[in-house]
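Question:
Write out your own:
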Amino acid sequence: MIVLTHFPIPAWLVLGLCLLFQTSLARAGRAERISYLGIEFIAYWVDLESDELSLSWRDSAGKALGSFARLREHLGPRSSDLKFAINAGIFSRDYEPLGLHVEESNVLRSLNLRSVENGQVNFYMKPNGVFYLTDQTPGILESDEFARSGIRPRIASQSGPLLVRAGKIHPSFKPGSSNLHWRSGVGLTKSNQVVFVISLTAINFHDFARLFLARLACDNALYLDGDICAIYLPELGYRGEDSKSRFAGMFAVTGKPKAASQRR
């Protein structure tokens, strides 16, 4: 005979189970529509265990891809498993990255440590930084720190400004600023979870940084770009066909080959 006895469950255990559940969800590659400060966003959490995160700028002929349609062509057979794509860091009018751009360990544009350039403001709003991936380890570093680090990434994109650095919002951001634009960015939590975000309406830098710090628990986050930003996310109905924006680099998330996933 089995006797079932009911014991009160300690609050700390309930909280721990909830946090564990949330963490497991965040680890899974997933998309979500979130609301913060009355503004809507799309967030995509990358699962680096089962997903491949790549960065592409030009085709084999050296021509800028520029669009999600051309990105799919460039990916070839992998395009059938394209889960998510987003513009990378800020670029010039010639569709060339303004700063470091690394694809499959090949440095296509070197690190840019200059302080000013005509026609560019956000990129040079110091501190700016680099989002990178070395094998399966992601990171976000301030540009000068990256230069001193000796890190040799598999992929990397430099942009600016840093939205959040070591748990602190960029010192130049002003609460209540009227500098409102659509914005995109990438964040990294303490447990090295990567999340890409795009706003669905205009937002200022300070509130965008608060989203990463307070809502998404990212200690470090990097601004990618503004009004030209867009995403490819068929899971939520975003395919980029209606986007008139043109890009330089684009991040893409595809599934890893099964054999590669099983070996890890």
Remarks:
- Residues 31-263 form one domain.
- The first strand starts at residue 30 and ends at 36.
- The helical segments are 11-27, 68-75, 143-149, 205-215, 258-263.
